Amino acid sequence: MGVNELWSILEPARESVPLYHLSGKTLAVDLSLWVCEAQFVKEMMGRVAKPHLRNLFFRVSSLMQMGIKLIFVMEGEAPKMKAETMCKRNQLRFGPSKKTASKKPRTGRSYFKAVLKECAEMLDCLGIPWVSAAGEAEAMCAYLDSLGLVDGCITNDGDSFLYGAQTVYRNFNMSTKDPQVDCYLMAKIKSELHLTRETLVGLAILLGCDYLPKGIPGVGKEQVLKLIKTLRGQTLLQK
């Protein structure tokens, strides 16, 4: 989820590119994104026992055939500041805690971990590398990207830019005729929108994010962007 309103702010920097243009690149994948997307595919609801595995298998197969290398990142333990937000989100995705006579209570988080374990086992069988993040998966993806160990991140969490990501891909269209993906480059965000990593951190505080869900009451996107523009103008005058 990340920063409130961030994707609409970054929309002018979005570029839709053919998936084939990613051939030869190595990308870090936030696996939790694909797992969650699979839960809401109408064609699989009530018909496929494990949609996360089916979705993972076919996406990996398609991307590898295009010459795209993948490194998957498993979600670690959520920071305490974000634990409540993550708990509520997982309950929305996978259902609330349930108790049965023969089983221990199952929370959305425990089920999510079990799903990730199944995905890891499948990746092992396919020979696809994966790593476990100490905390959030998008933070690990961004770290690998910032070090130049991968050519970009596949995630829907905009806060990956706040963690240092340079290239983010989201909104896959896996159509066989014209597969596309949205690409966001930090270099383009800086040059065209004049937003730096530090500025995006400020946006998160003012507009709200997973750590500060409500942000600053009464402060909206337009006000924040005007403030950034004003501050940038003052900085240029001082130079």
UniProtKB/TrEMBL annotation:
Single GO cellular component term: nucleus
Annotated SUPFAM superfamilies: PIN domain-like
Main location: nucleus
Cofactor: Mg(2+)
Record key words, sorted: DNA damage, DNA repair, Endonuclease, Hydrolase, Magnesium, Metal-binding, Nuclease, Nucleus, Phosphoprotein
Keyword Hydrolase: yes
The XPG-I domain, residue ranges: 124-195
One biological process term in Gene Ontology: DNA repair
Domain XPG N-terminal residue range list: 1-96
Subcellular location: Nucleus
GO molecular function, one term: four-way junction DNA binding
Family designation: Belongs to the XPG/RAD2 endonuclease family. GEN subfamily.
Subunit structure: Largely monomeric, dimerizes on the Holliday junction and the first nick occurs upon dimerization at the junction.
Protein name: Flap endonuclease GEN homolog 1
